[in-house]
């Protein structure tokens, strides 16, 4: 009995420790109009060890994928990716202009103010996976990104 | 007396003509833009015919008197399309009363999924004055080609996303192509160049 308890405790301790390694800030989803089949989810992820985001799940969509947008010569190109690297201690932006999460085949309209549940699966360099529950706030369809694009160029 | 009148008419005529020249309304003169690209030597978008949400056929001439700003996208686009629409809405506000003459036109590159009513609601969520146009796959391809807009479907499992040119094309109120705005520009930068186009036509 006792060893089992210890094991449980240590497992619990481990999972707590692991959960503390990845921090998600400023998660949001772009609201949709009725009938719009997909939308994007955005956030900042900081992991304390070198790891990668390998999967995202959400009950609001039948399919969730990680895509990457790239802009070259005013052509915006889009590509699904299998993972996003999360270098230790670095805040990685999951944003419209770069890596982003696509919620495809939405089960219903996402309205501004909705709390959209997301589960992020992050894998560390040893292959250990942790799942992080996030509530992303739906922002109005016409929300502009927080920064001013023009200032970057 | 008669001669005088005629002369006056000629002088008035010349005056109007020179005003027109100063105003740069002839399609030959290029304007200098601070941020955008001068497209006055390009002939794009002259012949397209697409439909709005009500099924009304629309072409460049439908926007005569307005300054159309046309760009291409699709509603399942996560980044550049909503950003460009939000930027256009902001620029229209920043232009003040002149903004009333800016007609934002969004052409879908994904008519299979962007059904007219949903597409219309989508663009009007940014500004109620915005217009969305769509056509058949063939009409869409022809329109994109006419604008030299590149687009392609990218398969993603059971679904697809799209890569596409994200330039906004600005015509003056006479339907002459003037300006190309890159998606990397801010609303403020776009506003300055849009007002430059507006100052002459």
TrEMBL record, chain A:
Descriptive protein name: Copper chaperone PCu(A)C
Xref: Pfam families: PCuAC (PF04314)
Keywords assigned by UniProt, alphabetized: Signal
Keyword Signal belongs to the record: yes
Highest taxon above the source species: Bacteria
Organism the protein comes from: Pseudomonas kulmbachensis
Keyword Signal: yes
Signal peptide from the UniProt entry: 1-20
InterPro entries (UniProt xref): LpqE-like, Lxx211020-like, PCuAC_sf
PANTHER family in UniProt: BLR7088 PROTEIN, COPPER CHAPERONE PCU(A)C
UniProtKB/TrEMBL annotation, chain B:
Stored Gene3D superfamilies: Glutaredoxin
Pfam families (alphabetical): SCO1-SenC
InterPro entries the UniProt entry points to: SCO1/SenC, Thioredoxin-like_sf
Leader sequence residues: none
PANTHER family assigned: ELECTRON TRANSPORT PROTIN SCO1/SENC FAMILY MEMBER, LINALOOL DEHYDRATASE_ISOMERASE DOMAIN-CONTAINING PROTEIN
Family statement drawn from the similarity comment of this UniProt entry: Belongs to the SCO1/2 family.
Protein name: SCO family protein
């Amino acid at each position: 009995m006792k060893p089992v308890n210890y094991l449980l405790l240590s497992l619990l301790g481990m999972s707590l420790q692991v959960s503390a390694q990845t921090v998600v800030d400023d998660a949001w989803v772009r609201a949709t109009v009725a009938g719009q089949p997909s939308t994007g989810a955005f956030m900042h992820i900081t992991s304390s060890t070198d790891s990668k985001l390998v999967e995202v799940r959400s009950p609001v969509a039948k399919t969730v994928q990680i895509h990457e947008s790239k802009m070259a010569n005013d052509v915006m190109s889009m590509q699904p990716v299998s993972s996003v690297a999360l270098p230790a201690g670095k805040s990685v932006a999951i944003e419209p202009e770069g890596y982003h999460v696509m919620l495809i085949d939405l089960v219903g309209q996402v309205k501004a103010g909705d709390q959209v549940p997301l589960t992020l699966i992050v894998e560390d360099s040893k292959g250990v996976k942790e799942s992080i529950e996030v509530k992303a706030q739906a922002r109005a369809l016409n929300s502009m990104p927080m920064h001013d694009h023009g200032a970057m160029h | 007396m008669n001669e005088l009148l005629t002369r006056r008419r000629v002088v008035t005529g010349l005056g109007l003509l020179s005003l027109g020249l100063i105003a740069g309304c002839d399609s030959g003169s290029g304007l200098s833009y601070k941020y955008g690209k001068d497209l006055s030597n390009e002939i794009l978008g002259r012949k397209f015919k697409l439909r709005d949400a009500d099924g009304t056929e629309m072409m460049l001439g439908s926007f005569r008197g307005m300054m159309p700003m046309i760009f291409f996208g699709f509603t399942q686009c996560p980044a550049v399309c909503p950003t460009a629409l939000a930027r256009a809405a902001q620029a229209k506000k920043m232009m003040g009363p002149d903004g009333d003459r800016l007609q934002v036109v969004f052409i879908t590159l994904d008519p299979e999924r962007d059904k007219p009513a949903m597409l219309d609601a989508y663009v009007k969520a940014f500004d109620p004055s915005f217009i969305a146009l769509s056509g058949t796959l063939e009409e869409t391809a022809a329109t994109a080609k006419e604008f030299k807009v590149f687009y392609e479907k990218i398969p993603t499992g059971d679904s697809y996303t799209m890569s596409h040119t994200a330039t906004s094309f600005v015509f003056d109120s006479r339907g002459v192509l003037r300006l190309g705005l890159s998606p990397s520009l801010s609303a403020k930068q776009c506003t300055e160049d849009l007002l430059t186009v507006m100052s002459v036509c």
